[in-house]
Write a structure and sequence with these properties.
The longest helix has 15 residues. The protein has a single domain, classed as Flavodoxin domain (Rossmann fold). The protein has a five-stranded parallel β-sheet with strand order 2-1-3-4-5, with helices on both faces. The protein has five helices and five strands; from the N terminus they run βαβαβαβαβα. The protein is globular, with a radius of gyration of 14 Å. By secondary structure, the chain is α/β, with parallel strands linked by helices. Bound molecules: flavin mononucleotide (FMN). The site of flavin mononucleotide has 19 residues, from helix 1.
Length: 140
C-alpha cells in the first residue's frame, strides 16, 4: 500500500512522531513518504492509498483545542479522496478536545474513509497505532 504521512510541527515532536509512524509502516512492507505540510504536494498526497495527516495541538491546554491552520489548509488543498483511506493524528500535552474529529471530518468531506484517529503525548506512536499499521498490512 502507498502511504503518505503529512504533518505540521512547531518544535519537532509531531515531526518525530510522523517519522516513527513512517518507519512502522515500512516495517509492515508499505511504501511510505513523510513530509511537512509546507513541503508536501497535495496532488501527490491525494494519490496515496492511505493518507495520514497530523498536527500539534493548539489551544488553551484544557479548552479550545484545534488543529493548526496549516494542517487544515493542507487538507483543503487535497483533491477528490473518494476510495482513499485516511487517518489523523496529533501530539499534545494535556487534552485534544475535538481536534481529531475536526481533522477527520475535513478529510471525510473530501471523500476519504477515515479509519483511525491517534493521539500521542510525545514523539512515540501508541500501541493502538501499531495495531492499526499491522491491520493495514493485512488488508487486501
Ligand atoms: C501556543 C501553544 C498552545 C498549545 N495548546 C495546547 C492545548 O490546548 N492542549 C494540549 O494538550 N497541548 C497544547 N500545546 C502543546 C503542544 O501541542 C505539544 O507540546 C505538541 O506535542 C507540540 O508539537 P510540536 O513539537 O510538533 O510542535 C500547546 C503548545 C503551544 C506552543
Amino acid at each position: 500500500m502507498k502511504v503518505a504521512i503529512v504533518f505540521d510541527s512547531r518544535t519537532g515532536t509531531t515531526r518525530a512522531a510522523a517519522a516513527a509512524m513512517g518507519r512502522i509502516f515500512e516495517e509492515q512492507g508499505h511504501e511510505c513518504s513523510v513530509q511537512s505540510v509546507a513541503d508536501a504536494d497535495p496532488e501527490q498526497v491525494s494519490e496515496a492509498d492511505l493518507i495520514c495527516v497530523g498536527s500539534w495541538t493548539q489551544g488553551l491546554f484544557i479548552i479550545l483545542q484545534h488543529p493548526t491552520k496549516s494542517s487544515m489548509s493542507f487538507i483543503d488543498r487535497l483533491g477528490d479522496l473518494k476510495g482513499r483511506k485516511a487517518a489523523v493524528f496529533c501530539t499534545y500535552k494535556l487534552a485534544t478536545g475535538s481536534l481529531l474529529p475536526r481533522m477527520a471530518a475535513a478529510l471525510e468531506a473530501r471523500g476519504a474513509e477515515v479509519l483511525g484517529q491517534f493521539k500521542y503525548r510525545g514523539p512515540e506512536p501508541t500501541e493502538q497505532f501499531r495495531s492499526f499499521a499491522a491491520a493495514m498490512a493485512a488488508a487486501p
